[in-house]
Design goal:
about 220 residues, Protein-Tyrosine Phosphatase, Chain A, five-stranded mixed sheet, about 10% strand
Length: about 220
């Protein structure tokens, strides 16, 4: 079961159990995506720790966060947006494209360092599961998921299907243009070589290998 029912959790699911191009599948319990964990009840936090999560990567901006330290879990704050770039967000932050994968390639092009830092943090995390999240667990989280699953060799259709498990208002905008979330994700994947992109962004071969190892079920 990829969907995780942690009390108070939003869009919580394991990235394990997805088919890869070599006929394998991604490892369960290694990496989890979600919305903000701030709404987790005490039972929800207990479930998170019991699941083996030992590192949380928070993609939110400073003004979106509620600092709630939790014993037994390290939290890394790595804002993905790059809010200081007013020119970029004047174009991409105020329209309906923001709630869709249509802004992924422009963001990846504009902020390679921010995307790279998140991947490096997941690669270097201490033993145990890693959870990464934004607010709703859809768009920023979806972008990092796309990079991770691409590195692990997950089939594009599986990556798109995972994204579609988190519906949002942007889906209506895509439909109005005769498109869909699946088509939008597949279009991004057709233009993106995740490994080459991250190498160019400064991620080392050691870290790329560590991400693959974390996400891949040993034979």
């Amino acid at each position: 079961m990829r969907q995780l029912r942690w009390e108070g959790g939003v869009n919580v699911r394991d990235l394990g159990g997805l088919r890869t191009r070599d006929g394998g599948e991604t490892a369960r319990g290694a990496v989890v995506r979600s919305g903000s964990p701030d709404g987790l009840s005490e039972r929800g936090w207990e479930a998170l720790r019991a699941y083996g999560i030992r590192t949380i990567v928070d993609l939110r901006n400073d003004d979106e966060r509620e600092a709630v330290p939790r014993a037994g879990v390290e939290t890394l704050h790595l804002p993905l947006d790059g809010q200081e770039d007013s020119e970029f967000w004047a174009e991409w932050g105020n329209g309906p494209e923001f709630g869709t994968p249509l802004y992924y390639l422009p963001h990846l092009d504009r902020f390679p360092d921010r995307n790279a830092r998140v991947i490096e943090a997941i690669a270097r995390a201490e033993p145990g599961g890693v959870l990464f999240h934004c607010v709703g667990g859809r768009d920023r989280t979806g972008q990092i998921t796309l990079l991770l699953l691409s590195l692990a060799g997950v089939e594009p259709g599986q990556i798109a299907a995972d994204y579609c498990l988190s519906p949002g208002e942007g889906d209506d905008f895509l439909a109005s243009r005769g498109s869909s979330p699946t088509e939008a994700i597949l279009a991004v994947l057709a233009e993106l070589d995740a490994a080459s992109y991250l190498r160019d962004a400064g991620v080392s071969e050691t870290d790329l290998a560590a991400v693959r190892a974390r996400l891949t079920t040993p034979e």
